[in-house]
Amino acid sequence: MRLRPLHLVPMLAGMVMVGPVIAGLTGALLPAFGWLPVLGGEQVSLAPIRALLDTPGLGRSVLLSLASGLVTTLLALLMVIGLLAGWSGTRLFRWMERLISPLLSIPHAAAALGLAFLFAPSGWLVRMVSPQLTGWSRPPDWLFPHDPYGLAMIAGLTIKEIPFLLLVSLAALPQINPRTMTEVARSLGYGPVMGWLHAVWPRLYRQIRLPVFAVIAYASSAVDVALILGPTNPPPLAVQLTRWMSDPDLAMRFLASAGAILQLVVTLAALALWWGGERLAGWLTGCLVLSGVRFQRDDWLRRLAALLNMVVVAVMLWGLAGLVLWSFAGLWRFPEALPSALSLKIWQMQGGMLIEPLRNAVLIGGLATAIGLVLTLSVLEAEIRLGERAGRWSQLLVYLPLIVPQVAFLFGLQLIILSSGGAYSLWAMVLGHLVFVLPYVFLSLGDQWRALDPRYARMAASLGHSAWTTFWCLRLPLLTRPILTAAAVGFAVSIGQYLPTLLIGGGRWETITTEAVALSAGGNRRLIGIYALMQMLLPFCAFLIAMGLPALLFRNRRGMAPTTTR
Amino acid sequence: MQDMTPYDAASRDLTLEKVQIRLHDACLIDLSLTIRAGEIVTVMGPSGSGKSSLLAFVGGFLAPGFAATGRVLLGGQEVTGLPAEQRHIGILFQDPLLFPHLSVGGNLAFGLSRRIKGRAERARRVAEALESINLGGYEARDPETLSGGQKARVALARVLLSEPCALLLDEPFSKLDADLKAQMRQHVFDRARSKGLPTLLVTHDEEDATAAAGPIIRLAQRGGQG
């Protein structure tokens, strides 16, 4: 039992992930009942809660949040099921697999802006078919984005969550042996999709349940996507909350705290409804098994799934292309399909303004990623040396910051940081990002780390090398590729963070993401295009390095080439 | 065989004293054994008989799920409590396990004992080791470009460069082609004998046991999985 400090690392990492969540929720709970001495709230009362319940349109806000959480998750899950059940192992599938990482790395805000540019009344899509097909010479009069039912917001969230759910499914599938299981079901006369649903899906779902919960929580409380695409009057609860939190009237902090607790309740309600849905679906599946329905002619379903998935990818890429085009567009009158001229004017005018938010984003993201990576590596190394595999509890621990809505605990955290005097400092920012970076780095690296043949380490020990030598000279170089990929994931997560940057930074730390979201309210598409483009480019560069560096370092080592594991 | 006073034990014997290995209350292994310098003892048994656990116990990396009692002595010194890297017990697995990020020379240098000092001297030892397995001048090669037999030879050379005091063989020939197998077997056994290493071979191949020409211990099927 040498190496004592390493024993403490898992605890430290757990505290980094759980501590801020608990502290933040407590920090919101007390003011929600009127207790916040700094602002003169020295007695417990129900006044903030009453004020909250008196807010006009609150019921609708809550319904919007609930619906976007549940509908988004259901749609994204159905798309993933369609793709996995109908197309595993095909060319289409491999093509989708390759697109996952780049699509995942696109920040939510950039994807939402791309969608808004594409489908807006004066967006690219309408321009492409006008006036020839539509006869419109002026933008039509429909409300998109910001439609009152939140459809634009749900669409934006769905297309961003599909790659995430696909990724976690692909990570879980090899343990289930999907091909053989489906073949067995098909040999019993079931159609491919139905066979997959019976033979693979129940077990796959059990594996990806926590990520699904994370999607529900995220979609029911997202702020950036809701600001860009969601309804405005009333907005979803999380947006309403953010308004209160940034209100200059400090008395609004009580209302905001009560709102934060309500957001937690709403997300929990969404999870509970989903849980009820799980029961129902389980019962229906039982009936289906009993009935023996084979559903052999499912070709149309497979085709539909393929079509929808391709549309999603196309929409996403098309939207992003629109961002790029707008940022270089000169004059672009309405029904014209393309700008009449390209120009660098907006880049030259705004280039200087980009430097500060870019620098901040890279600084915060870089530090959070570096700390997250060191913590993750230490935890994984400790796990190996202590011979303990992370159990179910630690899995739940990792997902806690992803399942508790950001907006519910970040506000309390902000209050705590404010009263502790560490307000707006760089380290407060880095810590705020680390809460979200760490789980993703950990999830991204964990499986690959544990999959390394343990005999390498035994071989090194039998050659007389210490555990540290094995770590530095074997594990790190052998796992260069997954480590760098995990770092890129962490960096991308940090770049995409809107709310932590806004709340903990108190508006003093402008990053490329806060700027892009702030600009989205205005109508300057060229300006928005520039910021959204830079927002995409940062994670893209990180992934480029993560792929290029190992290829360069190990160019003469065939055994280090990426293996297709699936 | 089991009653050895420290004095008449040759200073380089490998002794297992009342070694018992249990998994979930099932006793997999229960044996005492002395392997003399240059002797090759073969442990045979079907998969699940615990023979790999035995090697792991002697080597110092038994998985946490197992419970083991008994002592391992190397040259009269007890090594049971030592971590694997301080035991001076080399091991060869089924796969050569050359480190894919290092060159062939790098792999050998990684194995070469720290007692050998100085860049030039270490490089000379590596070159010498490569000569001895007919791979002279292969220092810069990517291990992945070697043939199966060449990889196996490099793995052997790597273990020997670490100057082990005993050798563990975990079915090291089972993945080689038939003609290569006989060759490699001879090669490994010759080297182990000439270096005077007490060697413990675990296998399910009768030919291995015959070629080892030493004592054979047969383990019974226990129904668990090893």
If you had to describe this structure to a student in words, what would you say it looks like?
The complex is a heterodimer of chains A (566) and B (226). Chain A is built from 24 helices and two strands. Chain A is mainly alpha-helical. Chain A has two domains: 66-232 and 296-343, Orthogonal Bundle (MetI-like fold); 344-566, MetI-like (MetI-like fold, Orthogonal Bundle). In chain A, a hairpin with a 4-residue loop joins β1 and β2. The longest helix of chain A has 41 residues, at 345-385. The mean pLDDT of chain A is 89. Residues 1-9 of chain B have low confidence and may be disordered. The longest helix of chain B has 17 residues, at 178-194. A five-stranded parallel β-sheet of chain B has the order 6-7-8-3-9, sandwiched between helices. Chain B has a four-stranded antiparallel β-sheet with strand order 2-1-4-5, covered by helices on one side. Chain B has a domain at 14-100 and 148-218: 3-Layer(aba) Sandwich (Rossmann fold), CATH 3.40.50.300. The radius of gyration of chain B is 18 Å and the shape is globular. In chain B, α2 runs parallel beside α4 (148-161) and α3 crosses α4 (148-161). Chain B has 226 residues and is of the alpha/beta class. At the A-B interface, α19 and α20 of A face β6 of B.
- Give the overall pLDDT of chain B as a whole number: 89
How many strands of chain B? Answer: 9
Distance between the termini of chain B: 27 Å
Q: Which residues of chain A sit in consecutive blocks of at least 5 with pLDDT less than 50?
A: none
What kind of sheet is the major sheet of chain A?
2 strands, antiparallel
> For the largest interface in this structure, which chains are involved and how many residues does each contribute?
A-B, 26 and 35 residues
CATH structural class of the largest domain in chain A: Mainly Alpha
Task: Measure the end-to-end span of chain A.
Answer: 38 Å
With helices defined by DSSP (H or I, 4 residues minimum), what is the helix count of chain B? 6
Tell me which CATH architecture of the domain at 14-100 and 148-218 in chain B applies here.
3-Layer(aba) Sandwich
- The CATH superfamily label of the largest domain in chain A reads MetI-like
State the CATH class of the domain at 14-100 and 148-218 in chain B: Alpha Beta
Q: What is the quaternary state of this protein?
A: heterodimer
